[in-house]
Amino acid sequence: MSAPLLTATGVHKNYGNTQALRGVDFAIEAGEIVAVTGPSGCGKSTLLHCLAGLLSVDAGEIRYRDQDIGLFSEAARSRLRRSDFGVLFQFGQLVPELTAAENVALPLLLSGSGRKGAREAALGWLDRFGVADLADKRPGAVSGGQQQRVAVARAMVTEPKVVFADEPTGALDQLNGEQVLGAMVRVAREQGTAVVLVTHEATIAAYADREISLRDGAVDPTGLGVAP
Ligand code: ADP
After folding, report:
1. 72 CA distance to ligand 1 centroid (A)?
2. What confidence score (pLDDT) does residue 184 get?
3. Is the pTM of this model over 0.85?
4. How many structural domains comprise the chain?
């Protein structure tokens, strides 16, 4: 078995008196797609934010390629997120004033790419997600499913090693949700991109290679999760 790409060991995270994570262990290998499931409030989103370095942990550690990211400066964590991580949320993540192509090009521009190259890459990624014809439309002018395809293209345009997706289909109906997720999983497999997929839906978790289930801030040892 290859070494994990990203691991959480004994992670605790509190919000005031709320213990959101109580000693969670987690590991994902390069190219693996892992669903994190469990009932609302069990800590899924908090775990995803800790893994992505968006939240610091209160105890335990998060290692990426064998480096403890808790020891990184905020600037170093931001650089790591820009170069190696992609994030995708439920909705509302596109910049409303920018076109689809401009939204997808944005992470490349922030990483120092030139405008022309960034636009060309953005068009290519929109095409991979079947929305190239929407390149010059703003988010408000396209459907929810189309917006989410643009958001997936934006999360993957930098060719990250890991995509963190927090209920990425939660705002879509079942058919649209499965189409968006199916496209994301297909492209992730082609690229060898690992995906941490937070979901409370069994049909969505079924797209993953593996599922871990949380309950009350800890890994559920029964592993029953949301699978039928
Ligand atoms: P899930 O993603 O499984 O719904 P969360 O990680 O969002 O769970 O939440 C875990 C627990 O932490 C819940 O009890 C939730 O109410 C609490 N929580 C989450 N975010 C915050 C916050 N910013 N401030 C206070 N409590 C929070």
Report:
1. 24
2. 95
3. yes
4. 1
